[in-house]
Amino acid sequence: MTEPTYDVVAIGNAIVDVLSQSDDAFLASAAMTKGSMQLMFSPEEADALYAKMGPGIEASGGSAANTVAGIAAMGGKCGFIGQVANDELGDIFAHDIRAVGIDFTTAAREGDPTTARCLIFVTPDGQRTMNTFLGASQFLPEAALDRDLIANAAILYLEGYLWDPEEPRQAMRAAIDIARAAGRKVAFTLSDTFCISRHGGDFRQLMADGLIDIMFANEAEITALMETSDFDAAVAAAAAEVPMLVVTRSEHGAIAVTGGETVHVPAEPIERVVDTTGAGDLFAAGFLRGQAQGKDVAASLKMGAVCAAEIISHYGARAQVDLKALVESKLA
């Protein structure tokens, strides 16, 4: 097996986020479930909701893209595979991800639908409620996979959100086969309970088949996946199926279970939670960066906690400080 030339290559939705401040009353009037993500199924629906938003901030996003952006900010070498359309938002996404040093070679898709966008409403308590029009991102074909990029990454990181549409689901299955054939690790994030409600059986089968090396989840996701309200029982059941299970617990920190041992890290203290958008994405970034550097589980968890704390202290899911210097200072 050759040495990998990339730390992490991710496959996920290529999305441009639009963030706006909101309140609980607006969420209720729009029938949104606070803190969740719901899909919009037409550009007209997205346009109608966008028209109701207050002043917004645009930033390239997408769960897995946020993760590799965080890893790159810490000095890691990363690639990203995701589908954009040949339009203005597609150009914005491609520019932004390449500008942070990530290799992005997926060709833009011609014609409709447009590049994906996520309308994010942030309430005063920092909770984010997301409404996503997947657009072109749900049409990522297997033919668009950069096979050499995947085979040369130490870790292939897959986003549960992208499992929903059929075409990228098949592409990700093919990517797992490429990574496995090259002797690489596969990491998977469950993304949201709605993904589990639709594809939990698939996810459990991936675990049972030994295709996932690192599984990321939060408390709600891991209990939903293992079909129990008992958190400890859910963790025990999932940990028996994967070599490493990482579960974030918001203000209660995070745990990793591997080799029968559980390691816990507390949440990093911050003055105020501003926006939780991307907290899990950047936790994964810190953890995976630590693993790629050969750090132990405790140090990797600490890196994840530091990255998550930085992200929730401001709007948006991309770091606003020197993330590498911040993490190094916290580990010193």
> What top-tier CATH class fits best?
Alpha Beta
Number of alpha- plus pi-helical segments: 12
Give the fraction of residues assigned to helices: 25-40%
Based on the coordinates given, report the CATH architecture.
Answer: 3-Layer(aba) Sandwich
Query: Please, what is the CATH homologous superfamily?
Result: Ribokinase
- What overall form do the CA principal axes indicate? globular
Task: Using the CA coordinates, give the radius of gyration.
Answer: 18 Å
Strand content: 15-25%
How many domain regions? 1
Integer average pLDDT:
94
What's the total number of strands? 14
- CATH topology category name: UDP-N-acetylmuramoyl-L-alanine:D-glutamate ligase
Q: For the largest sheet, list the strands in their spatial order.
A: 6-5-1-9-10-11-12-13-14
Query: What structural class should be given to the helix and strand makeup?
Result: alpha/beta
Q: How far apart are the first and last residues' alpha carbons, in Å?
A: 34 Å
Low-confidence stretches: none
What is the helix/strand order? EEHEHEHEHEEEHEHEHEHHEEEHHH
Overall description:
- By secondary structure, the protein is α/β, with parallel strands linked by helices.
- The protein has a single domain (6-14, 62-111, 136-331), classed as UDP-N-acetylmuramoyl-L-alanine:D-glutamate ligase (3-Layer(aba) Sandwich).
- The protein is 39% helix and 22% strand.
- It is built from 12 helices and 14 strands.
- It has helices at residues 24-29, 43-52, 63-73, 88-99, 147-151, 166-181, 193-208, 219-225, 231-239, 279-292, 297-312, 323-331, and strands spanning 6-11, 15-21, 37-40, 57-61, 78-81, 103-104, 116-122, 128-133, 153-159, 185-189, 214-218, 244-248, 254-258, 261-265.
- A hairpin with a 2-residue loop joins β13 (254-258) and β14.
- α3 packs across α10 (279-292), α10 (279-292) runs antiparallel to α11 and α11 (297-312) crosses α12 (323-331).
- The longest helix has 16 residues, at 166-181.
- The model has no long low-confidence stretch (mean pLDDT 94).
